[in-house]
Amino acid sequence: MKILVPVKRVLDANITVRVKSDGTGVDLANQKMSMNPFDEIAVEEAIKLKEAGIATEIVAVSIGPAQAQDTLRTALAMGADSAILVKTDEAVEPLAVAKILKTIAEQQGPDLVIMGKQAIDDDSNQTAQMLSALLGWPQATFASKLEIAEGKATVTREVDGGLETLELSLPAVISTDLRLNTPRYASLPNVMKAKKKPLEEIDAASLGVALEPTLKIVSTAKPAERKPGSMVSSVAELVEKLKTEARVL
């Protein structure tokens, strides 16, 4: 079974976000970039399926600038077999990403596309659903457990008030939630081996997908700063503050 795993290069989750002085977006200059955490979970799940003898090949794909090679090398170091970089310096919206991934999926012929449920930079949570619709494949989002057997995927996902279990015929699109697994760290030997694994580059313009944005960022602003907290010496003082200062009692 062949698995396609889209991965996105985003601002590292441990970095303090800086807003550009003109409010047009987030300042990425000289900032540490990493693989989107939800995509790391998707890579880990694909590797687990290969280690279990269910999957035979894992192809990682990323859409972005030349620097996204680093993200793909991380996926290769974790255990992916090969990688594809769809190169573009433009910001690509979810629908365009889904259309590009549809083209790559048609070329690669995977049995399963597994990807993060959302990227932490835009929190759109749209690409997996759009890709499923474009391909005409069944989808299961926010997977917290995945089992593959006899040409079907059984996915457990968290819903309000409990768990929901779905059965999908392959090929299918599945997006991952945090509880699916804990991604592994790539060992130094695997990092070195990853440098020799195949990484193909494709010009995004050659795929015939319109990349022009349809959305415009009107403004970006930092959240309002919270007031500093204070310590109280007794429950009575806390209750008094809640009544007179916070006015919540």
From TrEMBL:
SMART domains: ETF (SM00893). GO terms for molecular function: electron transfer activity. One of its GO terms (biological process) is carboxylic acid catabolic process. Residues 23-211 form the Electron transfer flavoprotein alpha/beta-subunit N-terminal domain. Its cofactor is AMP. InterPro entries: ET-Flavoprotein_bsu_CS, ETF_a/b_N, ETF_b, ETF_beta_N, Rossmann-like_a/b/a_fold. Pfam families: ETF. Keywords: Electron transport, Transport. The electron transfer flavoprotein serves as a specific electron acceptor for other dehydrogenases. It transfers the electrons to the main respiratory chain via ETF-ubiquinone oxidoreductase (ETF dehydrogenase). Belongs to the ETF beta-subunit/FixA family. Heterodimer of an alpha and a beta subunit. This is Electron transfer flavoprotein subunit beta. It comes from Pelagibacterium halotolerans (strain DSM 22347 / JCM 15775 / CGMCC 1.7692 / B2).
